[in-house]
Amino acid sequence: HLRLRSSLPPLPLILLLVFFVAAGKGDGGLRFRQESGTFKVLQVADMHYADGRSTRCRDVLPAQRPGCSDLNTTAFLYRLLRAEDPDLVVFTGDNIYGADSTDAAKSMDAAIAPAIAMNLPWAAGIGNHDQEGTLSREGVMQHLVGMKNTLSRFNPEGVEIDGFGNYNLEVGGVEGTLLANKSVLNMYFLDSGDYSTVPSIPGYGWIKASQEAWFRKTSSSLQKNYTSQQPSQKEPAPALAYFHIPLPEFSSFTASNFTGVKQEGISSPSINSGFFTTMVEAGDVKAAFIGHDHINDFCGKLTGIQLCYAGGFGYHAYGKAGWSRRARVVSVQLEKTESGEWQGVKSIKTWKRLDDQHLTTIDSEVLWNRGSNGRGGKDHDRS
Ligand SMILES: *[C@@H]1O[C@H](CO)[C@@H](O)[C@H](O)[C@H]1NC(C)=O
Ligand SMILES: *[C@@H]1O[C@H](CO)[C@@H](O)[C@H](O)[C@H]1NC(C)=O
Ligand SMILES: *[C@@H]1O[C@H](CO)[C@@H](O)[C@H](O)[C@H]1NC(C)=O
Ligand SMILES: *[C@@H]1O[C@H](CO)[C@@H](O)[C@H](O)[C@H]1NC(C)=O
């Protein structure tokens, strides 16, 4: 709709524009909000998107079957984005269901389209079904990193690493405050693989030693920068981790010590590659978020780390008829000084939204509180 001008604006103006765009963006431009001191992430797990209108819904009530397709997944995403107005949308894999998709790139474009249409920054990882269509795992990730508004990255540069889509994002403090140029919240995205390629080990893939080494190094550098570079902070910034396949430690809970439901087994790899222990040792990750098992949606805390399912989002994905498709929201809140200046992170909260008439909010809980020595949780909410 823009008419081409006969001449370009003067060079100084272009340079000024480039400077402002670059300065305003920072690392992907993620930062906490000025008014509320919050940063909100919407996690969308397992859309299983295929061909749109012609792709039928699975596991819905008989009365819901007619006219139900991938487009219902799209409609749910639009409703949620409008209702929650997140600062970042995270797609944790099985975004598309390759086996039923005619064109993997087209399916991915359609699946992510609502986030792009609403001009929201988003990040994605891959699951175990994204590559079953016309693109390989590498090809799917390559496509994702080329899409509009994405903060997804292929892999860290200059590092030998397993998988595709291992990267981290930094969230800056509130503009104009002392922490404006520091990453007060960190996010790690890892490729948890698809299936084991080792003949003697059956089942799903796992996070490999090379990925753990990258995570350890990145976490250590972020923590060092936060606590030593001016203005230096007393404690490392908290972090969130996102990937697809549950770690074996997701099996550590029963209904007595999680919030949400467990309606199927935990489909983790059959061996433990140690990433949970690595996160505990690193110390900054307060919660890890996954998908993969669509009808589990709980959070449980083990050794100071919350392990959370999002619950299945997509209508073409298996689910449970009569049990609403859902998504998980995480809202991170900054501390405020008595003089009213925003500081570092004070608390991390979560809830889920159901695709029912009212987009019902359920299972709100505090995942972490600063100063609670890892004992944060419902019983220790000091707010
Ligand atoms: C799917 O979308 C159609 C069209 O908007 C709607 O009539 C139907 O109720 C939706 N089905 C479900 C299960 O949400
Ligand atoms: C943050 O960086 C911007 C741009 O480089 C600079 O103008 C500002 O003074 C910095 N703020 C702080 C608190 O260091
Ligand atoms: C830590 O700070 C150094 C120096 O500014 C920078 O080069 C490095 O990338 C930072 N580490 C991370 C993980 O961002
Ligand atoms: C949860 O409770 C069960 C017993 O109901 C116990 O065996 C298990 O160790 C608990 N898990 C955690 C992480 O506290």
TrEMBL record:
| GO CC annotation terms, alphabetical | cytoplasm; extracellular region
Q: Which SUPFAM superfamilies match?
A: Metallo-dependent phosphatases (SSF56300)
Q: Keyword Glycoprotein on this protein?
A: yes
Q: What cofactor does this one take?
A: Zn(2+)
Presence of keyword Mitochondrion: no
Instruction: Tell me which InterPro entries the record gives.
Output: Calcineurin-like_PHP, Metallo-depent_PP-like, PAP14/16/28/29
Q: Single GO molecular-function term? A: hydrolase activity, acting on ester bonds
Q: Which UniProt keywords apply?
A: Glycoprotein, Iron, Metal-binding, Secreted, Signal, Zinc
What family does this chain come from, according to its entry? Belongs to the metallophosphoesterase superfamily. Purple acid phosphatase family.
Q: Which PANTHER family match?
A: PHOSPHATASE DCR2-RELATED (PTHR32440:SF0), PHOSPHATASE DCR2-RELATED-RELATED (PTHR32440)
Share what the entry says about its subunit structure, partners included.
Homodimer.
Name under which the protein is recorded: Calcineurin-like phosphoesterase domain-containing protein
